[in-house]
Structure formats: C-alpha cells, structure tokens
Amino acid sequence: MQRLIWAVIISFLMALVIGPVVIPWLRKMKFGQTIYDLGPHSHLKKQGIPTMGGVIFALPMTIVPIILSFDHARGSFLWVGLICMLGFGLIGFIDDFIKVRLKRSLGLTPMQKILPQLILSIALASWAYFGGEASTKLIVPFADFAWEPGIWYIPVMVFILVGTVNSANLLDGLDGLLASCSVVDFATMALIMMFMAVNSGEVATTDARFTSLMLLCGSAVGGLMGFLRFNSYPASVFMGDVGSFTIGGALAGVALLTGTSLLLPLIALAMVASSLSDIIQVGYFKLTHGKRIFRMAPLHHHFELGGMPETRIVSMYTLVTIVMCLVVLLNYTV
Amino acid sequence: MQRLIWAVIISFLMALVIGPVVIPWLRKMKFGQTIYDLGPHSHLKKQGIPTMGGVIFALPMTIVPIILSFDHARGSFLWVGLICMLGFGLIGFIDDFIKVRLKRSLGLTPMQKILPQLILSIALASWAYFGGEASTKLIVPFADFAWEPGIWYIPVMVFILVGTVNSANLLDGLDGLLASCSVVDFATMALIMMFMAVNSGEVATTDARFTSLMLLCGSAVGGLMGFLRFNSYPASVFMGDVGSFTIGGALAGVALLTGTSLLLPLIALAMVASSLSDIIQVGYFKLTHGKRIFRMAPLHHHFELGGMPETRIVSMYTLVTIVMCLVVLLNYTV
To answer: Tell me, what's the pLDDT at A72?
Structure first.
C-alpha cells in the first residue's frame, strides 16, 4: 500500500517533468491536432494544440511499476500487462503519426486500425486461456459468484479488450475528460486488487503478481494526474490516440489478468456510454434513414450541443465515475 | 467501510436533489453574490450568481451521519463534531445574510466575526481538555510520536480551529476550488481514521466513536461532490460563508476529536497557502509602506492575475492536495 502511494507520487512528479519537455517539442514538430471535421464547431478553436501528449503518462506507466517492483517475483503479470498497454499504445501511436504527418484527420483506415487490435487481443486472450497463469474465472458484479465461460473466454475477452480500447478512444473528446475518469478507474482497480488480496487471505500467494499490477494502476493514477496539469481545461496538449489506446490497453489488460473484466462496464461507465451512444446513433440513423437520437455522438457531444459547458460535462462525468466506482467497491469491503 | 461508502453515495444523491430546489429559491430571494470590490476585475461577471449554496452540502453532512450511525453508541464525538461544524456554519450564515440583505460586500465587521468564533473555539477546546473524552495528544506528522501540550492544548486548538475556518473561507475564491480541495481533505481524514483504528488494533474500543466521525467525513465527501455538480466552472451557485465555515468547522472539528490537528497544515495545504499569502501580503505591504509580494492575495488570485485560467488553478490546487494527502497517508499504511 505504501508502495502504491509511492507509485502515484513518483509518476505524478515524472509526468510534471516530462510535460514541459515534450509539449514544446510536439509543438515544434507540428504534431498539432487536426480537429475531426465532424465534431462540434466550437472545437475548431482547438486546431493547432499539440497532440500525442499521451507519452507524458505512458512513460511513467511503463518505467515506474518495473522499478518499484524490483524486489518482487514479478511473474508474467506485469510483463503481459505492459505488453497489452504498450501494444495498443503503439497502434494508437501509428494512427496519430499518420494523422499528423499526412494531415488526414482520420488516420488509419478502419480496417488497418481494427486488424492489429484483433490480433493483439486474440494473442493475449489465448495466453490467458492456455497459459494457465491467469484465472479464467470472471467475477460477476454484485454476485458471490464467478463465471467460467470455457472456450468462450477467448471471444469474450477479445470483445472486452477491443471494446475498452476503442471506448476509451471515443471518450477522449473534451479537455481532461478521459484523463479525469481514468484516474478514478485506475484508483478503483488498484483498490479492488488490494481488497481481493486481503479478503481472500491469499496475500502471500497473490501478493507478488498482483502487487506489480497494482503498481501499474498506481502509476497510471499519478501519470494521468500529472498529465491533467497540462490537459485540464483549457488544454495545452491532447493525449492523442497513443494516449487513449494506452489507457484502454492498460485498463483492459489489468482486468484480463485479475478476472475483473465484467466490472469494467460499471467502473468505466463513461467509456461504455460513449460507445453505446455512438452505436445507437449510427444504428438509428441507418434504420430511420437519417434520424438522430442524440444531437451528436458520443454522448458528451450531445450534452455539449445542449448548451452544457465543457468543464461542467467533465466534472459531471468524473463525479458519476466516482460514484459508480464506489458502488463497485462496496462489494470488496466489509 | 461499506457504511462509509454509503455515506458518500447517499449524501451525493441528496445534494443532487437539494441543489435544484435551493438554487432557484436563492435566486428568487435575491441571495446573489455581491462581489468583493477588491477582487480581480474579471470576477465582476460573477455578480448575481446566488450564494449561500453551502446548505446543499451542510444538510446531508448533518443528517446522513446521524442516520447511518443509528445502531452505534455514537458517544459524544458525533455531537461535538456537528456542534463545531454547525456553530461555525451559523456564524457564516449570519455573515452571508447581512452581506446579501444589506448589500454590504463585507458582511459582519471583523470584530463581530471573530468574537463568536473565539467563544465557540474556546468552548470546544475546553471540552476536549477538561472533558476527558477526547485525547489531548496531538499526532506529529512523520514522527512516531505524539505531542502532549498540557494546558497549552487550549490556545493551540483555538488557533487551529479559528485558523482553519478562516483559511477555508479565504480559499473559497474560484469556482469549485474549495469544494474540490475539501473533497480530498475529508476523504483523507476518513481514511486516516480507518487506518488508525486498524493499526492500533483498538478497533473495538475506538470503533463506535470514530465510525460516526468517519461517516461525517464521508457525508462531506458526497455532499461536496454533489455541490460540485452545480459549483464547478462555470458556477451556478457559490457556497458563501455558510459553506466555507461549515467546511472549516467540520474539518477542524474532526481534527480536534481525533488528535490529528497537526496534520491539517499538510492535508489542507491549499487553505494554509491562502492564509499565509494573505498575511505575508498585508505584512509586507505595511512594512514597506505600499509594496506587494503577490499580484493579489490570497495566492490563487496571484496565479489568476498572472494569466493562469481559473479552471487550471483549480485543477492544480486539487492535484497538489491529492499528492499532499497521499504523503500524509504514507504514515498510516504498511
């Protein structure tokens, strides 16, 4: 627990140091955001703010947990978690790079984007299923019960991995939105791991493997807090796909390794709301040949066009995330 | 712990319900903020936004801990904590009421404001010292040691009580600033009490008394989160002195009862920074016959006039508060 706090503090300070180095460099290299043509008009003022700021937290999230778990038998958990995070992060990085360098607002084509995600997800899910190190039981929220999906574990996990990463990407639409919600998500994940270890009484056996993942979550909390120093409204840097994919990858990776994937829809409700609203919007549009349910999807743009100030939407999302996470934590405390 | 989470959730929902009832009423009753003439010019646009919104969290903070501790021997701790909170809150309420009704920006005269505060503080400190129920040992941060100040306990506590309440009042200068920082402060206080109970092994004996205070902190977290729904930038309501005094009173009251007063300068660093910058500014101004150290005091106005956006200052203060609180929590974990 003390180490968890250190992970937060060190990563926070690290991000504070990296920020002022990276941001002017990104600006100089003209990694400015090309604003999505279909977004709200008010977002046009954001043109030119550097993107790919995700490196500000991706770096501490990679380094700090490795260093702080130096005296533990890290097991494969930390490495698999990092592979998941960095693998998705790399896909996001390539997407960003193409967007920025080719001045194409949409980056990779949908096919180019989804294929490597599927390959990575299938590899990770197969490792978990056939490797025998991770538990393939999925904890069911609010029930004293874990679901054992058998071979279905692989498609379910692929869906959760790809879904989480892309939902995180969709949620990254307002200054500080994804970062604030994710700070809460990762803090919750860390606490769940702590309580799981305490409650099961298996502190000794699960400690080493879970500790390193807990440190990964702690570094995410700290790194994202440091990033928020630069990304909260009015943002001077955006995280880019490299950032949102790193967040989604880390979150889904930790969930995969700890069997807590089915808690994600509650913990990361904000992400789910973004995806679902997008899917509903597109589906409804096609079904009705042109009608819309939301003013704009994802959901946060619907609120924005309804006249709610950007800062208010971010605080509302963050507050709801905190409450949802507390509801989940109710299960793990006495 | 589960009950603590419930306190947060219930108070949050309660504040969400109270807000839309109270805010239009405050507006109708013309309890609009008369902006302090000496503040930054940009604050003039805030004229007319209703104040005294502190009732939105003061109500759940009073009701929820009483209800949720129904089956505990509440002891005198909860009542003394509530007296401290509501006593200071009442002084703030009177100040607000005079400001608003007489359209005087400064409310009570300094003497009228400080005298009841001193009387209340002396009464509370004396109760703690002579009553024998609260420990008069003060935990020293970062030391395995508690300071026993003897009869000096009374003036020290009076200083801390009056200091905290007025510092909270000074920190309440930007949208969402005091509320955000206080959410973190109260969450930390609740966790410290939890860890203290666990570490001392005295769970049984300290449980009942501390539990009710922990619930008070939890209700503060939830109530303030709900209040932030309306108070985060751009604010549609201000908390007023009734709000800042309630927060200061509750925080100092809990610290008094748990012997954690000496941790307050770390936990509530943002409040201390406000007071200290104010004192330094005024002192230096008098000494040098007209020179200033800060562009404007309290410190957050210094940053504001330096060109930092209001929302950024709030997020910076909140992030620093989180880190300071984590540093304090390092002492209570293994």
So the answer is: 66
- In angstroms, the separation between the Cα of residue A33 and the nearest Cα of chain B is 21
- A166/A120 Cα distance (integer angstroms): 14
pLDDT in the model for residue A179: 97
CB contact under 8 A, B233 and A309: yes
Q: Tens digit of pLDDT for each residue in A270-326?
A: 999 999 999 999 999 999 998 999 999 899 999 999 999 999 999 999 999 999 999
Question: Exposed (0-12), middle (13-18) or buried (19+): which is A114, by Cβ within 10 Å?
Answer: middle
ipTM of the complex in this document: 0.90
Minimal C-alpha gap between B10 and chain A (Å): 10
- Report B:12-31 residues touching A (Cβ under 8 A): 12
Q: Give A216's Cβ-side CA count (13 Å radius).
A: 32
How far apart are the C-alpha atoms of B161 and B243, rounded to whole Å?
16
Closest in A12, A233, A329 to B311, CB measured: A233
Nearest to A61 by CA among A123, A115, A12, A130: A12
> Which pTM value belongs to this model?
0.92
Tens digits of per-residue pLDDT, B29-71?
A: 777 666 665 667 667 667 778 989 999 999 999 999 999 988 7
Nearest Cα to Cα of residue B317 among B273, B251, B261, B276: B273
Q: How far is B256 from chain A, CA to nearest CA, in Å?
A: 26
pLDDT band at B74; cut points 50, 70, 90: low
B2 to A232: CB separation less than 8 angstroms, yes or no: no
Q: Angle of helix A240-258 relative to helix A153-171, nearest 10 degrees?
A: 150
The number of CA neighbours under 13 Å toward the Cβ of B26 is 26
